[in-house]
Structure formats: C-alpha cells, structure tokens
Amino acid sequence: MDYTDIISAANYLYSLGMLLEFASFLWLRRKFSIMKRPYRVPFKLSALVPMRLIPTGFLVVKMAILMTVVGILWYFLMRFCKSKEWLKQWRKCPVELHFNPAILTRVFLEKYGSYNLILAFNRED
C-alpha cells in the first residue's frame, strides 16, 4: 500500500465522518435550538438543510462512484484469478450449483445422505 492509497482511505473515512457531522449539526439545531453556544449560525433550519444537502450530495455521489469502480475492478480481478485457477474452491464447480437450491440439495443428498442434510440445515452457528 503506497502513500496515495493511504490518503484515499483517509479521505473516504473523513467523508463518512462529515456525513455524520452534517446529520448531527441538523439534529442538534432542531432539538436544542435555544441552547447557549459560543457561536451561532445565523440561519434558520429551513436554510441550513439545503446548505448541508449540497455537500452531502457530492459526498454520496463520490462514494457511490468509488464503490462502483472498486466493485467492477474486483469482478475482473476475480475472473482473472479464476481463469488462472488460483482460486481452487471455484475451479470445477458448475454455475448452476450456486443458484439452484434443488440441484444443490440433490448433490448434497447423493454425497452425504439425508441425515447429514438435516443436520446441516438445523445447525445453529
């Protein structure tokens, strides 16, 4: 991990903190509007909400784009690893086993028997 990755992660966490800060600012302003404080923002709540929505929108869009890009990159990385057979648990597993519970149950019954199937579904981890 190089310096730019660390800075990117710190910015992402800072953005999450800013979202919490915006929410707490509006909540405290609504709940305790007459409380004495060292500095008062000279606007009513109706003006403060749009002021906070604009940066919140930018933060949410930035985080959504970041997560989408990371998800797409992760997908292609997993496909590459699967094609090189670096992920052994996915090497020879047919796709229909992942999505069809009936086929999965039949394969499990053929391999382990009905008693183990009942134990597997009744297990409380």
Automatic annotation (TrEMBL):
Compartment list: Cell membrane
Topology within the bilayer: Multi-pass membrane protein
GO cellular component, one term: plasma membrane
Signal peptide coordinates: none
Molecular function terms, GO-annotated: transmembrane transporter activity
Keywords, in A-Z order: Cell membrane, Membrane, Transmembrane, Transmembrane helix, Transport
Ranges annotated as spanning the membrane: 6-28, 49-77
Name of the protein this chain belongs to: Polyamine transporter
Species annotation: Abeliophyllum distichum
Taxonomic path: Eukaryota, Viridiplantae, Streptophyta, Embryophyta, Tracheophyta
